[in-house]
Amino acid sequence: MTKKAVIVFSGGQDSTTCLIHALPQYDEIHCITFDYGQRHRAEIEVAQSLSKELGVRVHKVLDASLLNELAISSLTRDNIPVPTTNSSGEKLPSTFVPGRNILFLTLASIYAYQVKAQTIITGVCETDFSGYPDCRDQFVKALNTAIESGMDYKLHIETPLMWLNKAETWALADHHNQLDLIRDQTLTCYNGIIGNGCKNCDACKLRAKGLSEYLENKVGTMKSLNEKINLR
């Protein structure tokens, strides 16, 4: 049986790292990028460019603009400023897009059902995250159970980065000899700037901190990464 996976792909550091990690493991990979009227719309073009460069044969850009109408966030509204300090904790940061991962993973699962893929891959992470409840392992497992029940279809939502910190995510990219591609061509910045980004938003600060930690201790970080996932 052909081993197929569907990747929720934004062209950011995390989803691109998931893609390069998945490529040698699957016979067929489908990338899905969602157009939900996001503030940094350049991510759609970046995702298309990266998937092509990495040899992905099927890349779908799906209209999810309904989310923009319903979800009020600094990533969906130009009049809400992107914060420059982490506001996680009891109050969710303004960059949280309510329902985004619920919708994206559900739509990706419907697509997987149609193409007979057994796995959905997403780059959500509980170790280094901005307080988003839909990045937690508990949420992913609960949604996975609901989707399997609702479609009567065996499907696994895989989260390769769930327990990795950002330094280990950089190490994973380096393990696959794609550190430069992740550093220079991905778009993580909340203000839509490719590569090192604006250097002021939470996403850029977390990304830069992780890279610095990895470069300062490559051997130790790679060892801790290998203890968490089986590198091939």
UniProtKB/TrEMBL annotation:
Zn(2+) binds at C189, C198, C201, C204. GO terms for molecular function: ATP binding; ligase activity, forming carbon-nitrogen bonds; zinc ion binding. Its cofactor is Zn(2+). It holds the Pfam family QueC. It comes from the Bacteria. It is an enzyme of class 6 (ligase). One of its GO terms (biological process) is tRNA queuosine(34) biosynthetic process. PANTHER family: 7-CYANO-7-DEAZAGUANINE SYNTHASE. Catalyzes the ATP-dependent conversion of 7-carboxy-7-deazaguanine (CDG) to 7-cyano-7-deazaguanine (preQ(0)). This is 7-cyano-7-deazaguanine synthase. The gene is queC_1.
